[in-house]
Automatic annotation (TrEMBL):
CDD domains: SDR_e. Belongs to the NAD(P)-dependent epimerase/dehydratase family. It comes from the Bacteria. InterPro entries: Epimerase_deHydtase, NAD(P)-bd_dom_sf. Pfam families: Epimerase (PF01370). Pathway: Bacterial outer membrane biogenesis; LPS O-antigen biosynthesis. This is Oxidoreductase. Residues 3-217 form the NAD-dependent epimerase/dehydratase domain. It comes from Rhizobium loti (Mesorhizobium loti).
Amino acid sequence: MRILLTGSSGWLGSALAPRLRGLGHDVTGLDPVPSAQTEVVGSVADRELVLRIVSENRIEAIVHSGALHKPNIEHYENADFVATNMQGTLNLLDAAVACGVQRFVFTSTTSLMISQAIRAGFQGGARKAAWLTEEMSPEPRNIYGVSKLSAEHLCRLYHIEHGLPVVVLRTARFFPEADDMAHAIEQSDANTKANELLFRRLTVEDAAEAHVAALEKAPSLGFDLFIVSAPTPFRPEDCAELIADAPAVVARYFPDYPRLYVRKGWTMFSSIDRVYDPSRARQKLGFVCKTSFADVLAALEAEA
């Protein structure tokens, strides 16, 4: 397929572009930042540029992973998020309809699912972790979340009005940077990322593979939305204890983890406030992340 990949110079794009090319696809990368994976330097907010790229390259599929992200909030105005994340998505959808694009994959974020109440650890007035599925009604807490949720709605609208096959992937964390709340976290960055694989993280390689799966399934799905995160060992009935004593819950599922963590000098989060459930992606998209918390423990065991 002839694919337009936005955000091709970013962390995900840099992993996804070579993966798509390795599968035999003709990829045109679009990003404001030059890179080896980017053929066109420019913004999705440039409506004429987007239409020209899609038309001249006879694009058959669009993977829209470019965006302003949560860390950009400190340096950009709300209007910039609207221009890039909302108007940019609209520009791509309009170009897709105008040029007969056959499938559209949109990279969204699980971040838009986290309300202030969830961050505070309250569900229905009780202290427990939130068990998050695609069925919940999000209450975004910042302009990043609002703009990404609005873009999701645009994707759904264009499927309804124009029949454009669209798959939305709400990806959990896969960025390489330290947590933006790292100052409040006792664990090291590597320790933190390992812990997060239990409930809110995946590798960038798995994120790229999820997009490959979405591209393949988009025409048969029509429109669908999936949480993409490493498989969690937890169950909804664990949520109250995850808030109160997360290490005890983790030890039930992974009895060897305390020994391995002590040897490494790592610790588990004392409390976990959310769990992303990726089971729908397994059932309908046929996708499961390859890397999980169990792989981290296997690597720690192998270090001996």
